[in-house]
Amino acid sequence: MIGIIAVPIVFLIYNYVIYPLFFNPLIRQGIPGPLHYKLSSFFILNDSRLEKRNALLQKLHLKYGPVVMIGPNEVSLNTVDLMKKVYLGNYPKEFEKKGKTVLGFYSQFGNFGQRNMFSTGDSKTHILRKRPLQKIYSKSSILGAQEFIKAKVSNITKKIDQLGPDVNVDVYSLFISMAMDVVSGFEYGTKFATDFVEKLPHTSKTLEVEGSIFNSFRNSSSMWFYTTLLPSLWTPVARWCGIEESVGYAQDWIYAKFCDAMDALVSGDDASDPDYPVPNVISTMWDGLRDKSKQSVQGTLPPNRNRGHSYQVEGIPSSQINSIASEIADHVAAGHETTGITLAYITWELSRPANAHWQQKLRQEVAGIDDLSELDKLPILHAIVQEALRLHAAIPGSEPRFVPPGKSLDVTVAGRSKIIPEGTMVSCQPFSLHLLPVFGSDVYKFRPERWLQDENETPEQYNQRIHRINGSMFVFGQGNRMCLGMHLAQCEMKMCLAEIYSKFKTKVSPDWCSKVVQDNSDVKTGYSELPMRYKSSGYQELTDVDKMAMADTYTTRPMFDECWLQFDRW
Ligand code: HEM
Hints:
oxidoreductase activity, acting on paired donors, with incorporation or reduction of molecular oxygen; alpha+beta; heme binding; heme; monooxygenase activity
């Protein structure tokens, strides 16, 4: 009897007290951090679940310095040098040694039973996947696709004109829709691109409408903690929250569109609209698969458009077909939320009374220019986009990697050299890196001028400063796992801002909040700063700054999922 009780107690004491305190190499090295975080991963996982992680890591870095232990095997880093060592050093997303693999944060991002580029752990497999897709999103390819992007972007101003002046417009809905209209063309071919800017009203909270695919994407995001960190609890929690069905809806929608585009390709049709011949993922991967299989592929079996997710082509294993669908699903998700969220933050910042002078400057700069390569050279437009990417990084959360087998990471703690051993999970988070002093003063404020030449600076000093701060940006990651859609996102955003501000001025809707804050006050981050009751009850007493607080999650969003502006012709 004593043995039955004693064995588990000894096990727990050894695992949670003796081993961590006396044998854990990170603790023995003296890596700083709160003691309870060093002993168990429970605390940092729970912070993620409570949507407090990003703000907490920032506080820990301010307290303990740039190297902080946040779990028995996890260290958060916050200097530009360490970020470069890890990400330009291409540390892997998974740790593999002697045939054993430690899966990481990313392994759960696969779809339809298949991994994709983003969720691939090892560098060799990743580069093979990435190579054929890289050219679709290269700068020259995006410039070549500008007529298509322009057509989708100009639907925004058409929509605003239809709505008329002083109408409250939810720009969060508008820009998420625009980004989906664009990215779907790059995935399925322009023939199959969506038209959500035209089809949705954007004058009510349509993204939350039950059954909408955006609601479904949102519900998937709300489950990100379980998807990525505790997959075994995903199904019971989704069922308990009543969103299991809804989460599947976006996947079904993505797959149904995939089937439509595949039907066209397999029968020898082009997936591109002849007016907008844009290179796309489905055609590129399908051609690659046919070349690889060296078979003449003909005819389809009837696709299963329900939950089966199994499009079949004679002679090709369905796993290979689904590998294309998995890649597309990832790009569709990555490509619409991030860009839409950033645009919502940019236009909100420009609409705040204290920042409204930037609208004037922008209008003067973009007047009469709609060519993308010309827009790309404009300093004010560039400064506004860069500043929003810094302050409102759409992915502000940690991007975890492992110290590779056979290597260690040298760090300095309080002037002393320390070694982080192989297999340790290390990460930087854009949110904290973007607040470092290298970016200048008032780092919690939106100040596009930090990207422009100061009147006291020589051109040489300016170039050196800009080189330094550009190299410190982490919004798109760095190294070989850097964002594939970066040029697409930047071009889309610049085109969209030029289109809007050459025609309209914007202001924060006074009907949306108790008060529109007049000064350029600091941004807020996260649910942790506002009591949860605001989320579900009447929250009319909040200001626009409160309502645009960034959700404390891996991919952020305005925490109330809305951003209401009014548009007026200049
Ligand atoms: C403002 C918009 C965007 C932001 C802030 C953003 C941010 C990021 C970040 C930080 C990563 C790297 C994650 C990591 O290393 O752990 C990433 C990867 C990725 N992004 Fe984006 N992204 C944006 C837009 C897009 C768009 C429009 C696409 C369209 C296809 C896209 C596709 C991808 C893909 C496929 C990867 C994985 C790359 C790889 O693993 O090699 N992103 N993105």
